[in-house]
Amino acid sequence: MASEEVAQLAESLAKTQVEEGELSFKGRGMKLDNAQAAEELVKEIEQFPGLQALRLEGNTVGVEAAQAIAKALEKKSELQRCYWSDMFTGRLRSEIPPALTSLGSALMLAGARLTELDLSDNAFGPDGVRGIDSLLRSAACFSLRDLRLNNCGMGIGGGKILAAALTECHRLSSAQGTPLRLKVFIAGRNRLENDGATALAHAFKLIGSLEEVHMPQNGINHPGVTALAIALQHNPQLRVLNLNDNTFTKRGAIAMATALKELRSVQVINFGDCLVRSEGALAIAEALREGLPILKELNLSFGEITEEAALEVAQAVEHKDQLEKLDLNGNCIGEDGCKALKEVMDSMKMGDLLGSLSDDEGEPEDDEDEEEGEDEEEEDEEPQPKKSKMVAGNMQHRKAAEVKVEPRRGRVTELRAQTAEGSVVVEVLTPPSPHSLATASSFPTSLRGLPACL
User: Fold this and answer.
1) Nearest to 191 by CA among 399, 366, 447, 450
2) Burial track 148-158 (b if 16+ CB lie within 10 A, e otherwise)
3) CA distance 196 to 187
4) Are 177 and 214 in contact (CB under 8 A)?
């Protein structure tokens, strides 16, 4: 075999090699309903020496199977990394908390010291968070560095339970002289809203060691954004901040910009689809001038930013030597503004760093200033959920010929269904990204099926 082929084979084997001490059942699609179904898996766990990482992703585990697995884990004191995302598909929500409780209790009994815990894509809701509450408060998590709970449907209640558990973990671990040093926190698509985000912000402020925070698509408005901004100032090693598809508005954006001035280690900022608006963008431009020395990526797309503010942002990145991408797509810059923006970036020899502007919304309409003023007045009050509005519909007919998503100002989107007898219009206050193609399944669960014809 030619030396080149040998090198390629070695490289391929290196890429597929299982990490040392790792036992993986990832993606096998096993349906483990009871102890008998889990018998072979349990045997492999028991016979695996020096188990440090266990992958159960892509399988479905019932309560009895979880108890059997837990029994095997009671003797695995070296276990550090649990990759347990997407492992309850097809299970009743009531099954998940006892399954998680059994697994967590086993880790505590074994004396394990976790560094990574991934339970993403398990739609367990607040009750599921209760299932890991004791584990998160225990010594097993004093060493936790990476916590991933993306797309778990925690809601406000789950967010509060999680925040209390992390706070207690920090208190107890600090009392032993080894304070919790969590580095990565991922909890996107969890409907945390302001109260959940604010509760977590209090925990973040105490922890103070975060390097990555990912909380996109959580329905967080400016009060929650402001609470997070204050907390993140106490995490000086923060490198990545992803709050995509929440609703900053001017007040939230200004609060976040104030925090960014103090954070010297930030490399990636994703505030795309966050409605930062022009005044918020100007505040962020000021933060760019005063801080963020090693910034690599800045996403301010789809934020209703006008030409003047966009140009200020562009000019503010002039001396960012490590910048790799600036995304201002989907704003209200206008054709002439887009040309001016490209010219500014080219003049700084940074033209290749500017992302596409193909989805620019064009210059704002004449009445925008008046509408923005009204929006800002509304921000002084606590946001109230907007009731759905249905018109001209015959709800006896369930055949929908068309579902259409129409973006409108103020992040209101119309979900329009054309039936045999007429049309039904549902106004959705906080839809998925307005620039993306939406289907009925992509809307919040609480809205699905609102008009019976859908």
Assistant:
1) 447
2) bbbbbbbbbbb
3) 11
4) no
> Strand 413-418 vs strand 423-428: parallel, antiparallel, or unpaired?
antiparallel
Q: What are the pLDDT digits (tens) for 317-330?
A: 999 999 999 999 99
Pick from 269, 314, 310, 315: nearest CA to 292: 269
Does 247 score more than 70 pLDDT?
Answer: yes
Q: In sequence order, what are the residues at sequence separation of 6 or more whose Cβ sits closer than 8 angstroms to the Cβ of residue 11?
A: none
In Å, how far are 64, 103, 107, 311 from 33, measured between CA atoms? 7, 15, 21, 58
Provide the pLDDT for residue 291: 95
CB distance 31 to 64 below 8 Å: no
pLDDT at position 430: 40
SS3 429: coil
Three-state secondary structure call for residue 239: coil
**For the chain, how far is it from start to end, CA to CA, in angstroms?**
61
- Greater confidence, 233 or 395? 233
pLDDT reading at 410 higher than 90: no
**pTM here?**
0.80
Distance CA 117, CA 153 (A): 17
**How far apart (Å, rounded) are the C-alpha atoms in residues 254 and 416?**
35
In 105-254, DSSP assigns E strands to 116-118, 146-148, 184-186, 212-214, 240-242
Identify whether the C-beta of residue 53 lies closer than 8 Å to the C-beta of residue 22: yes
pLDDT score at 4: 59
Q: Report CA-CA distances (Å) from 122 to 152, 370, 374, 392, 450.
A: 5, 44, 40, 39, 25
Q: Percent of the chain, pLDDT > 70?
A: 76
Average pLDDT, the chain: 84
CA dist list (Å): 425 to 12, 42, 318, 401, 444:
53, 52, 46, 13, 16
pLDDT band for position 366 (cuts 50, 70, 90): low
Token pair for 13: 């084997």
Count how many Cα atoms sit within 13 Å of the Cα of residue 141 in the half-sphere of its side chain.
25
CB 348 within 8 A of CB 377: no
Phi/psi of residue 116, nearest 5 degrees: -135, 135
Helix, strand, coil proportions of the chain in percent (round to 5)? Answer: 40, 15, 45
User: Strand locations in 65-119, DSSP E?
Assistant: 81-83, 116-118
